[in-house]
Description:
By secondary structure, the protein is of the alpha/beta class. Helix content is 57%, strand content 9%. Helix 11 packs across helix 15 (320-336). The radius of gyration is 27 Å and the shape is elongated.
Amino acid sequence: MKLTSRDAPRYFAAPNPDAAGVLLYGSDPMRIALRRQEVIKALIGPEGEAEMRLTRMSASELRKDPAQVLDALRAVSFFPGAHVVFVEEATETAAPALLRALQDWQAGDAQLIVTAGALKPSSKLRKGFEADRAAYAIGIYDDPMSRQEIEKALSEAGLPLPGTEIMAQLTGLARALDPGDFRQTLEKIALYKLNDASPLSAQDVEACAPQSAEAELDEILNFAAEAQVQNIGPILQRLHAQGTNPVALMIAATRHFRTLHAAATSPQGIASVRPPVFGPRRERMARQAQNWGMHKLETALSVLTETDLSLRSAGQTAPQMAVVERAFIRLAMLGSRR
Length: 338
């Protein structure tokens, strides 16, 4: 039975304990591993593996002994409760043994959990699980975590649901990180907030979130907007070492200063900006817009436009990152003028 991305979340929330098994396939091993762990834990409980109600085997083992998967499905555990047989890294070569075991499965046997990489619609393994009414086939794709999944991850980490702004910040973080990294970040936040009864704040999230090239990009934009000339060179070197494109830097800087200009020219200030800005970044950009003022921001945008055109010019001979550094320094010095 094939489950679509719309139906799959309901299955993951409460796997069918009477099913013959499930095939989880996709191109991201981390996402598949997380879903597999979730399904197995829901079926056999947190102590299932310690009670030897989980049997693991790799698909490569089935080449030597195809019957061992069916034997494992029918084995009786010393402990009462559901039993799971987990076969990892399945390929088409394992399809005959797995589909034969699925065909011979009977009520009371262990449930068969199979993980695989990306499978084409013509895959025998995929078609076999999709055609079996007692089993499920679920494709795991690189979609961002849904709000429901984020809320569940918060609950598992022992964190209460935060307010709207913090939830928006966490949603953005979930889109930027792999699911495994996001869950680890939530666990880190939970430890950070241990014995702290105050509501989760944007500062708490930022203190625990992993630093990335994107974070350093935000940092250099703030340095330019806050006249911190001395910090521009070192961070540009790090961004250059990480492979950041000079034109991409100028696009980000132009977007940042256009946001400041929109805030400086509107009676509503930063509240008028779309898309909205949240958390400490909102307060910081509001201060920047106020300090710069409309006229200096217009000059800053002219500097950025001029630099962007220079970078894209066929006659440009100077190193592009040096041109970008000069532009950021000009902006920082312009921002320091009163």
